[in-house]
Amino acid sequence: MALQKVFKEPYVDWLKENISVENYAVEEFVYDTGKTKYLANVYQPAGLLEKLMSAENDFKAAIILYEAYPNLTPIVASQQKGLWVYLSHVDLFPYVQKRWSKVQTGDADAKYIAEHWFYNGTMRTSLMGLWWSVYCSVDESRDADHKYDLTELLFKQEDFRTRTFGTYQLFRCKDAVLGILEFLYENPEITNSFFESRSRYISEYFNKLGAVKQLAYLNKQFFKEELERQKQTILNIRGRE
User: Fold this and answer.
1) CA 63, CA 70: separation in Å to the nearest integer?
2) Are 180 and 202 a contacting pair, CB within 8 Å?
3) 0.85 cut: is pTM over it?
4) Could you tell me which of 189, 178, 198, 211 has the C-alpha nearest to residue 240?
5) Tens of pLDDT, residues 213-231
6) pLDDT at position 241, please?
7) SS3 90
8) Burial grade of 76 (CB within 10 A; 0-12, 13-18, 19 or more)
C-alpha cells in the first residue's frame, strides 16, 4: 500500500491565491506533481473515491472517510492542511465536485471554490470537517453497531456541527462532545423540534460557561448533568425547525 500524498504548504497557498473557476469544472484538476510529498505512516486507501461517490449523505460519507484512514492521528489531521487540500483536488476531486456541485452548473465563483476546496477552519473545511466530526463523536465504549449513534445525531443539524458547537474549542474535548450528544440522544424531545434554535442555545451556553470554568478538564457526566439542569429552559425555546 502506497503512502498518502499531500500538497506542500507553499503550493496550497499558491493554489488558493490563483483560483480559476474553470479548473474546477473539468473531470480532473491539473496540478504540479512536483509540489507534492508523502505523509509518513498514513497510507492511501484503496477504493475510497468509489465508496464516497455512493454515500447516501454527509453522515455516511464522514464514516467512510474516517474509517479509510485508521492511522491518521488528530495531530496530523489538524496540522497537515496539505492533506485535505490534496484530497479535495486530486484523490477525491470528483466527490467534492459532486457534493458541492455549483462548479458543474456554472454557478460557482472563486469564493465558493475557496470555501469548499481549501482550509477554512477545522469544521468548515469540507473533508477535514467530515473526518473531525466522526473522530470527536464516535463512542468506542458502545458496541460496534451503535458506536456511531452520537455521530449521526451530530449530523442532524448542519449549523450545529459546522457553525456553532463544532467551531468552539470545546469541540476538541471528547468528554464534552460525548456528554452533550449523549444527553441529546437520551432526550429526543429536544431534537425532534426547534433543534436549530435549541442547539444554538446549548452551544452558546457552554461557550459562556467556558469563560469561568476549565471545561476541557471535566468529564462526560458533568456536561450531561449541566444540560439536565437546563433541560426545561431548552424545551421552552421556540424558533426555526
Assistant:
1) 11
2) yes
3) yes
4) 198
5) 899 889 999 999 999 999 9
6) 59
7) coil
8) middle
